[in-house]
């Protein structure tokens, strides 16, 4: 038995020459992580072409971890499987957590020729206790969407890297007009606006003589201090053909609401003091002092958006809506006792 280790770990720092030196007649498989997390290494075309050539020459197989393929800051990712001679000798691993932003599902997938996939499936059968079949079906449906969802991931990566300097950077749509992913991508790149999603749900629509369809609903949350920018984004979303806004609600941050309540309370106290002073003068009292005072704040719920529908639209139900403003009602009531001086003024 050879005393040489069965595995060799190569951290590429010398380019193609280092790759050439790493191969030997004993090389049977290559593990490749590209794009490489957390080192952020993205292998260049020369490196990948050299690696593919060496794998073919040594009749080896490639096991490629490419779960970050759609999160590349600049340029595009090219799978090793796409190089000459590599399709029949590559196992390509993907992740729904990265590709579709579904990290909690813990669903991955492998792409390879049948000769390599069969033993992988048999080994997987005895290493995994349970699998989520419905989540697997959902991932398959998501992968069937092609590149429709990936620009959103790219925009998130650029925003996280500090490259979202204003709305100038634009991701082109993939035909058929702007998609929801395009619009969300533009929204992510607007400075001062934070975007998050909650409340995902889906249900099947069945109609006579029609194939089943799925309707997906998700709550989109836009946060920012510039209401005009927020209103413009909402109006743009409403005018997008592939995106239907079923409802629209506004909320105000706790800090903003508290500041407004404090300002209203101070104004209400001043108004009460002025009324007490007027009352004292009306009764001819030289002075007055405050007794028991009660301050009550009533919050009448979320701000209500003020919208204007486009009357020129043919379909009134789907008419674009312009968000012109918002109205929030908060009432502060100050009541109390004004104790008047018994000595009348002028005596």
Which structural traits does this protein have?
single chain, Aspartate Aminotransferase, domain 2, 3 domains, two-stranded antiparallel sheet, 32% helix, elongated
Q: Could you please describe the fold and organization of this structure?
A:
This protein has 347 residues and is of the alpha/beta class. The protein has 3 domains: 128 residues, Type I PLP-dependent aspartate aminotransferase-like (Major domain) (Aspartate Aminotransferase, domain 2, 3-Layer(aba) Sandwich), CATH 3.40.640.10; 89 residues, no CATH class; 87 residues, no CATH class. It is 32% helix and 23% strand. It has 9 helices and 10 strands. The strands form 4 sheets. It has a 4-stranded mixed β-sheet with strand order 1-2-3-4. A two-stranded antiparallel ribbon has the order 5-6. α6 packs parallel to α7. It is elongated. The protein starts with 15 loop residues before the first helix and ends in a 7-residue tail after the last strand. About 8% of the residues have low confidence.
Short description:
The chain is of the alpha/beta class and 347 residues long. It has nine helices and ten strands.
Secondary structure layout:
Layout: H1 16-22, E1 29-33, H2 45-57, E2 61-65, E3 90-95, H3 96-99, E4 108-111, H4 114-127, H5 133-143, H6 150-160, H7 180-188, E5 194-205, E6 213-223, H8 227-238, H9 254-282, E7 288-299, E8 304-309, E9 321-327, E10 330-340
Parallel strand pairs: 1-2, 2-3
Antiparallel strand pairs: 3-4, 5-6, 7-10, 8-9
Helix pairs in contact: 6-7
């Amino acid at each position: 038995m050879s005393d040489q280790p069965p595995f060799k770990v190569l951290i590429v720092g010398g380019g193609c020459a280092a790759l050439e030196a790493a191969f030997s007649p004993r090389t049977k498989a290559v593990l490749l992580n590209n794009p490489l997390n957390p080192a952020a290494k993205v292998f260049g075309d020369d490196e990948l072409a050299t690696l593919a050539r060496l794998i073919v020459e040594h009749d080896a197989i490639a096991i490629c971890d490419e779960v970050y393929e759609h999160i590349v800051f600049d340029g595009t990712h090219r799978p090793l499987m796409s190089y000459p001679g590599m399709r029949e000798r590559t196992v390509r691993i993907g992740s729904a957590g990265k590709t579709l932003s579904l990290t909690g599902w813990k669903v991955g997938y492998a792409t390879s020729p049948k000769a390599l996939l069969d033993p992988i499936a048999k080994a997987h059968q005895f290493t995994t206790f349970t699998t989520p079949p419905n989540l697997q079906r959902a991932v398959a449906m998501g992968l069937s969407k092609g590149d429709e969802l990936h620009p959103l991931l790219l925009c998130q990566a650029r925003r996280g890297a500090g490259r979202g300097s204003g709305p100038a950077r634009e991701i082109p749509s993939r035909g058929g007009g702007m998609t929801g992913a395009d619009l969300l991508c533009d929204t992510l790149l607007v400075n001062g606006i934070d975007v998050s999603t909650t409340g995902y749900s889906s249900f099947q629509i069945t109609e006579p003589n029609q194939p089943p369809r799925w309707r997906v609903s998700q709550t989109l949350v836009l946060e920012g201090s510039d209401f005009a920018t927020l209103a413009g984004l909402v109006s743009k979303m409403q005018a997008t053909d592939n995106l239907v806004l079923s409802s629209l609600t506004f909320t105000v941050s706790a800090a903003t609401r508290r500041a407004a309540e404090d300002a209203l309370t101070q104004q209400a106290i001043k108004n009460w003091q002025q009324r007490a002073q007027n009352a004292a003068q009306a009764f001819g009292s030289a002075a007055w002092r405050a007794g028991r005072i009660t301050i009550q704040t009533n919050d009448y719920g979320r701000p209500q958006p003020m919208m204007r529908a486009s009357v020129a639209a043919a379909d009134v139900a789907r008419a674009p809506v312009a968000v012109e403003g918002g109205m929030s009602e908060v009432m502060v009531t100050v009541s109390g006792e004004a104790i008047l001086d018994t000595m009348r003024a002028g005596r």
